[in-house]
Amino acid sequence: MKALMGYLAGLLFGLGLAISGMTDPARVLGFLDIAGAWDPTLMFVLGGAVLTTFIGYRLVWRRGAPLVGNAFRLPTRQDIDARLIAGSALFGIGWGLSGYCPGPAFASLGGLTTPLAAMLLAMLAGWFLARRLA
Amino acid sequence: MDWSASLHGLVGGILIGLSATWLMGSLGRIAGISGILSGLVFERPKGDSAWRLTFLLGLISGPLLVMALGGGLGNVVGEAGVDATGAVIGAPAGGVGLMIVAGLLVGLGTGIGSGCTSGHGVCGLSRLSARSLVATLTFLVMAMVTVYGVRHVVGGGA
């Protein structure tokens, strides 16, 4: 049951990325290039996703518990530390170089190219390193 | 302005929001891709791995389903049919060397910073988390600075 629910969530996410054009690095880089021919698409994607999730979360939280399991698992940390900022900054550089963040990179596996495979393997190596640094 | 692309973006964004809502309502989880994927690979938590695997399979099947429907719902910048994967999955922006550097930075950065565009950007902002707001602004600004540097300083403007 958990596996089926997970699949549905992933499928919706993948459909959203494909329909919005986020599986095309050129669209993402077009948004990030504020000094070029600016492409606002990503703003609509993030705006639509945040607004929907903001409302959706509040509706499902009213139930007090998820359909499976006994509690919502929410992040509890509230401190803004150097790791949060340094990590996010490094991620931003990688995102700006490639136009891929983890979701679209993985969702694009169906159109796998050698550069994308290299990126995904390097991403795994980066997570491994981050865990060693923890 | 390309309103069709913006509309595609809005519709896709709403689907991503429905996905995040569904994962929270069904399993009580945050839809953060870097956490779901790295957790599956490096921890394989008991009783908590199958849904991660099926989520990732669903993530891959989304674009494939759009392609199977003819690709007309896709929203890539290039003309339809120009690249091998049709109009749904775009071509990478650089070669293997650049992508290795980018991949290392994305993995290391999201690992240290506890999240990416989905976990901090979509789910964190929706929870009104100050940590996620700081993270999102940081990676957005750094990505914009990086693109500016690559395209307009090193590249000499394009």
TrEMBL record, chain A:
Superkingdom assignment: Bacteria
Lineage: Bacteria, Pseudomonadati, Pseudomonadota, Gammaproteobacteria, Oceanospirillales
Pfam families hit by this protein: DUF6691
Chain ranges passing through the membrane: 41-61, 82-100, 106-130
Keywords recorded for this protein, A-Z: Membrane, Transmembrane, Transmembrane helix
Name by which UniProt lists this protein: DUF6691 family protein
From TrEMBL, chain B:
Record PANTHER family: INNER MEMBRANE PROTEIN YEDE, SULPHUR TRANSPORT DOMAIN-CONTAINING PROTEIN
The protein, known as: YeeE/YedE family protein
Membrane topology: Multi-pass membrane protein
Protein family per UniProt: Belongs to the TsuA/YedE (TC 9.B.102) family.
Assigned keywords, A-Z: Cell inner membrane, Cell membrane, Membrane, Transmembrane, Transmembrane helix, Transport
Transmembrane segment boundaries: 20-42, 54-77, 89-112, 133-154
Superkingdom: Bacteria
Subcellular location: Cell inner membrane
